[in-house]
Carboxypeptidase Q
Amino acid sequence: MRYFSALLLAGLLAGGPAARAQTAPVGPKTDSLNIRRIFDEALLRGQCYENLRYLTGTIGGRLSGSPQAQLAVEWGQRTMEKAGFDKVYLQEVMVPHWVRGPKERGEIIGNKGKGVAVAVCALGNSVGTGGKLRAGVVEVHSLDELKKLPDAAVKGKFVFFNRPFDDALIEPGSAYGAAGDQRRSGPAEAGRRGAVGALVRSLTSARDDNPHTGTTNYGDAPTKVPGAALSTLAADRLSLLLKADPNLKFELEMGCQMLPDAKSYNVVGEIRGSKFPQEIITVGGHLDSWDLAQGAHDDGTGVTQSMEALRLLRVAGLKPERTVRAVLFMNEENGTRGGNEYARLAQANKETHLAAIESDGGGFTPRGFAVQGNPEAQRKIVAWAPLLRPYHAAEIVPGHSGTDIEPLEAAVHPKALIGYDCDSQRYFDIHHTAADTFDKVNRRELELGAGSMAALIYLLAKYSL
């Protein structure tokens, strides 16, 4: 998934009147008419929603290396071929093959032996427990707090990372970024200190019993210990009971394991540019998802929007002057192998990439785009905001673009990396949970997002950066 810290738009335009004078002018009236044609097609005959219905309902969750991931690859290739793109092909990539195993169990056990079952799930890439694992618990709220504890307070226990989202932050993605280190690195750091495992509060503001999975990274940690996510209600209960009984035990059972790497693919479809085919604009989302649900918002919406953006241009008769590629990246969730391989091949083939766009923040109501790139490219994109404003997609801010397209920066130096930005207030309620299902997606919001992406691609392909 994508997150960024929005900055003030004024910072983007820093440089005063001289800098503003260099911005590219908004295009002729035909641009407004052409963008209207894009949105008419998206709203009246859009295919995003039905494509997503099939991906989520027929194929379902698509964890890298799984049979469902392979079915999704075949579906993506077939769908783009039916859309009539000029070229559709696969890029082979070896991906991690982690399996969750039987449903996880977690239980708080008091000093009288009475147990309270709580909602847990394994963190992605975690090792299993090898049966039932029972130990005491020490609660911390940061990695720094763990470092300050004496060895005796940690050794042989579960480390319970209980830092909540900062709900004072307006952008939930900022709260996700701030709290995420305890999930990514918590189990590794717990293992370094002699703990038997790590329990991590789910990364969400929601108060419910849906535990949120997500990748944990062991790095070079000499000892790998199990890492599990607790639902927010479970975390609150454990914290409360710990205060009353510091000697309570927690029992965890997880059967997850890492299997040998598996062969998979990025799926690529392209429309060749009419004037500058050697210049490439990439638009994409990640085809893999976590296995707890259908992977609807994360990132089925981004996948279907990326394919739809190209279809909208084609059906509207707007032949792009630069080559446009839709890329369905494999393995964003627990390895980013697909994004790295796409960038490696782009570099090896000496490709020229003008820009790349990623949709990986859900399929909610459009707001605009977050832009990474040189200031001149950013100013040019900001100058197109009036053309996007009628469709509520005109917020152009500096920020994080997307995990899958970021490797392109070092590999081929595109002028801009761009993240599609939508209303994220509800996103982290369902992110990485069993609740990420098709029924949470609104058709109009989804199709409007595809139209917004297609409109920006149209402008990039016509005017460059």
